[in-house]
DNA sequence: GCACCTGAGTAGCTGCCCGCAACTCATCCG
DNA sequence: CGGATGAGTTGCGGGCAGCTACTCAGGTGC
């Protein structure tokens, strides 16, 4: 995360990257989202991340409102902390899906895995796509980008 | 980009982040995509990035096949280098759009701007969304994620 | 009661890489 | 020939990543 463009960059992408531009942050979100992990040790084991880095990243995620810390207590155990995604964190699913899709097609890997998103209960798989207001899918090649003021 | 998970991570997201997990890389792609910039100085001026970092990032983008370098010559000028997105680079538009959308809604900023994607020629705006095979939109809250082997 | 385990961190150190500024190098213009 | 411009390279300095080792609190086995 470059310090030259702070959190008040006018570009929404720069502001997003200020939060999730670090590699580990998105991977933690991914583990929370896909594997349902909530505990320090789960993230540590799953990612092989150093504990001090994990502490720092979780603190960032709490700070930024992407996760909340809750104290829970299983019977017969002492109270522990767990970290759960907030709505803001869960709505990163589009970013996660886009990255997964890109990696799967442009950086294929034997035995690789990619998160798939299913509609609750019906278990129907959902794809990420560009759609117009009339519901038609548009492949990315047919799009041009333009900077637009937020409303 | 953590060195602990190399390019051969089985997770497609980790492999994607290995390429675009750095803040500047995606911002360069964004400038190329949204503003149509192709030249060293254009990126430098638009992003305020240090030249050595820009050199390194452009080299990475060339290496990874997201951009190609071409020599061009305007009449009356000497030959220059320009950097253009490849198909792999352009297909990061989903990631860019997802990040822009997230930043716009969760990190709003007065006077902020977000890239908007329009269908070529018809100029119809296109939105990023999860859709099922029957074409229905699904809001991210109604999705559950699952790790799936690539095919 | 005491040793031990486990989960959740903290502390200290090393090295790399970011970021800045200054410099180079080639070419074109006047 | 002198200056401007575009495209970088080089040389520092500081900060954060990443590793390892340590701490601390509570529960369990004996």
Report on the structure:
Two copies of one chain form a homodimer. By secondary structure, chain A is α+β, with helices and mostly antiparallel strands. Chain A has a domain at 12-110: Orthogonal Bundle (Arc Repressor Mutant, subunit A). Helix content of chain A is 40%, strand content 24%. Chain A is built from six helices and six strands, in the order H-H-H-H-E-E-H-H-E-E-E-E. Chain A has helices at 12-20, 23-35, 40-47, 51-63, 87-90, 93-106; strands at 67-72, 80-85, 113-119, 125-132, 137-138, 143-149. In chain A, strands 3-4-5 form a three-stranded antiparallel sheet. A two-stranded antiparallel sheet of chain A has the order 1-2. In chain A, a hairpin with a 4-residue loop joins strand 4 and strand 5 (137-138). Chain A is globular and about 55 Å long. The two termini of chain A are 26 Å apart. Chains A and B meet through helix 1, helix 2, helix 5, helix 6 and strand 3 of A and helix 1, helix 2, helix 5, helix 6 and strand 3 of B. Strand 4 of chain A pairs antiparallel with strand 4 of chain B. Chain A binds a DNA duplex (30 and 30 nucleotides) through helix 3 and helix 4.
Name a few traits of the molecule:
homodimer, 151 residues, alpha+beta, Arc Repressor Mutant, subunit A, 3-stranded antiparallel β-sheet, globular
